[in-house]
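Good day; I would like, with your permission, to put a structural problem before you. A protein sequence and the structure tokens that stand for its backbone fold form the material at issue. The record follows directly beneath this note:
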Amino acid sequence: MRRGALSLGGQRFWAAMRRSLIAVVPLALVASCGQSDPRTGTAVPATPQAAAVTPAPVTAVSAALTVTDPHGKTFTLKKKPERVVCLTGLCDDALVELGLAPVATTTPKLLSRPDYLGAKGADVPVIPGSFGGEDVAKIAEAKPDLVIGLAGVHDQLRTAVEKFAPLWVVQVKSYDDSIGYLRALAQLTDRGQQQAAAETRFRAKLADGLTRAKAAGLDKKPVLAMYGGTAIGVNTTEDVLGHFMSQFFAYPWPSKGGGFETAQAYSIEEILAKAPQVIFIQSFGTSVSEHYKDNPVWKRVPAVAAGKVYEVPTELWASGRGTRAFGIILDEALAKAAG
């Protein structure tokens, strides 16, 4: 088989993974909350830390029209945004956490989940087009006063979009960044109370997750998060999802370096050698489990032999990068790994 994460049906995902992989830096834990610090440059341990798990106090942010993002960049609006168009799942996630909804989106399956907007998600118009090549005319039709996209992907739309609305591009390197963007968007929308409630809930879930993982011995259980269809890739510890998983499980999947085609390219043989006991798969187009079900090497992987391979919803595990998504992913991962 060819090694590497080749282009399959999920074009949005592959483009997003390529962009995020380029931007990712090694992360380290902040001991007080068991969270990552994207600015330390310290190597990430392969297993969770036995750090204090008491959540830090959370304060509600104050309304502001100039905010600083998690990477130190400032962003300014002339007025509080009332109509936000989301071109990336982090935007939808943060808005829902703040008790709001976008006026248009590119991730309708995420919004329509029962733990997001449910049936009301179907009422949100969908912006057509490829990831990074969305239909600007349709964005304009939504009459936004703010458009939120992904850095490295939607910058190319800036000239066209900013003829009618400001464009804010976000970049998530860790779930701490998700918290940072939640706080910044809460400032812009004057939703400090909702931000404090959502952030408190998420920090408590992280602390509880660390406690549960250690109590159940999951911090010593090899787990794998991967993606693909007829070809596969691994969410390594330098990928935001892989790093998140490494906080709660034994996660022996470092980046292999190089470009996108090599950094996350693990063969079935290499996966077998690391013997994961639980596997979470984001399948695009073709089910990875179905495609490899007759592969003799795949069958020998402990998770496969034990029936502990789980196909997970891509709209959440691949597109969701906000505090709500990570909280739901954590609950699902802990429950399945402990079962």
